[in-house]
Structures are given as C-alpha cells and as structure tokens.
Design brief:
- By secondary structure, the protein is of the alpha+beta class.
- It has a single domain, classed as Orthogonal Bundle (Arc Repressor Mutant, subunit A).
- The chain is built from 5 helices and 2 strands; from the N terminus they run ααααββα.
- It has a two-stranded antiparallel ribbon with strand order 1-2.
- α1 packs antiparallel against α2, α1 runs parallel beside α4 and α3 crosses α4.
- The protein starts with 13 loop residues before the first helix and ends in a 15-residue tail after the last helix.
Length: 144
C-alpha cells in the first residue's frame, strides 16, 4: 500500500478552518484551537503541509502573535510591571488589610531586547550588502 493514505479522509471545511483561525487569533494554542474547530493536531499539521493557503494564513497568525509578544515584552522592559501583594495586620481585635503595589523592572529583559535588535540589525546589514559568505560571527555581550 505504498503511496496511499490510511484511515478516513480528514473532514476539513472552510467553516471549521474559520473556527480554528478565530481561536488562534483570540490567543488559543494550536492544540486548543484545533480542538475548538473539531480537528486533531495531526490534521492541522497535514493542512499546513498540503494546503498553501492554510499555511500562509497560519504563518500570518503566528507572525501577529509573535509581534504581540514582542510589543508586550518591550512595554514590560521599558515601563516595568505592577505586582500586588496583600498585607494583613491585626491591631487589637481589628484586622487591617492593605494592598501594596510594587513596580518591578527586569534588566535581563532589556538586555535580551538589545541583543535581539542587534542581531536583526546585523542580519539586515548583511542582506543589504549582498554578502553571501556563510561565515559565523559571534557577538559576545558582557555585563558591566
């Protein structure tokens, strides 16, 4: 039986594809989006491999999701994020509850973003120059 697929053919439809992509755009994982649309993960993997239009839309969704992560990371690196803690104090017979807000910052996140930007700039400069020499260049960062 070489060359023949086994099992029943997948029941893909435009409606189910739309449900899948709507779920992906809402932030669901590939596995959860497949379940919402009534697909298995293997059906999604096959569709990405066999259907160029499906793959193009999936890749666009992933690019948008990645950009969202990058935007959020950039905001957290530049502005920090707020953590809330609750403190309970007992004074006599009375319990006093306070919410304490603290802004946190991460120098590691700033370093990561700087490295990513440097790598992108390096790659764009290299593509623009027409340099096709495949040599490896290592950029070493040190904490000061």
């Amino acid at each position: 039986m070489t060359g023949k697929s086994r099992g029943r053919p997948p029941k893909r439809s435009k409606t189910r594809d739309k449900k899948f992509f709507d779920a992906i755009e809402e932030g669901h994982s590939q596995k959860d989006a497949a379940k919402i649309a009534g697909y298995s993960v293997s059906t999604i993997l096959r569709a990405k491999k066999d259907d160029k239009e499906f793959k193009a839309r999936f890749d666009l969704c992933e690019e948008i999701r990645l950009q969202g992560y990058q935007d959020e990371m950039h905001d957290m690196a530049m502005n920090g994020w707020t953590e809330q803690r609750m403190r309970k104090t007992i004074v006599g017979n009375k319990e006093i509850t306070e919410i304490i807000k603290t802004t946190k910052r991460s120098p590691q996140m700033l370093m990561f973003l700087a490295r990513a930007a440097e790598a992108r700039r390096f790659n764009f400069d290299r593509e623009d120059s027409g340099d096709t020499n495949d040599q490896t260049i290592e950029i070493v960062w040190e904490d000061v």
